[in-house]
Amino acid sequence: MNIEEVKALGDAIRAEVGKAVVGLDEAVELMLVALFASGHILLEGPPGTAKTFLAQCFARAAGLDYGRIQFTPDLLPGDILGSNLFNFQTSQFTLTHGPIFTELLLADEINRTPPKTQAALLEAMQERTVTIDGIDHKLSERFMVVATQNPIESQGVYPLPEAQLDRFLFKFEVGYPSLEQEREIVAKQGSRFGMPRPEQWGVAQVADHATISAAADAVAANRLADEVVDYVVRLVRATRTTGDLQIGASPRAGATLAAAARAHAALDGRDFVLPDDVKKLAPAALRHRVILSPAAEIDGRTADAVIAGLVEQVEAPR
């Protein structure tokens, strides 16, 4: 697959998702980048802003097997990974796969479950492998986690630790739609009650596993000039030296940002990466990997504002 075909595939998936989901074009763009860069994405927003529906429509359009886990305080790691159950008919243990054995996994309200269960996702997200009773089991090469969390509740939730947040390629903050977008949502979906389904809105499958894998291979071959590599490194290292941040981004942040920039360039129809690709993705790729300093918090600054300032300060190659 060449870059023009990757761009056409991305446009087709956007068009299908856009039939049902209104006002989340940026989220769809980041999900496409994450898919082709083999990353995961965290969606944070209030209830009723179509986070779950977006994941369903995206999985259907991209031809990915879809699975969902509703995280609760009593969820155990075995409920996610699966377990070996004794079969009395055969007198043998049989592996029962958990919902993690899919291609696009929606981890709904991931901050509602204790850290022990959250940690069950770590190996799967990083290595696409799960270990059950000492035996490794491979997940799909296209395995992708779309996690959601509710930022407006503080009771009965367990904030994600930094180690797990660093596994996400992007964190996207889902807000409320504009007036016109909300009118369109009400007009389109106001005649139905209950959870909408992608097929009700004509969302069709436009890709399959082989197509997505070929697109990912084409993305990985995109050219990344040494000057752009240096720019990514300087930008990530700047997060560790500014006084506004107590903890900066990790080296993994730079590596994943470079991979994401390759995918963004391909979706734009280019076989080379520009500094603008890095600039556009930097907020979503870094906001969850940094911690504000006490002084910045007192001043009311946000991680996004600090990152935007660093993007302006760090000189980009011409």
TrEMBL record:
Pfam families (alphabetical): AAA_3 (PF07726), AAA_lid_2 (PF17863)
CDD domains: AAA
EC class: hydrolase
Top-level lineage group: Bacteria
AAA+ ATPase domain sequence ranges: 37-178
EC number: 3.6.3.-
A molecular-function term among this protein's GO annotations: ATP binding
Keywords: ATP-binding, Hydrolase, Nucleotide-binding
Similarity remark: Belongs to the MoxR family.
The name this protein goes by in its record: MoxR-like ATPase
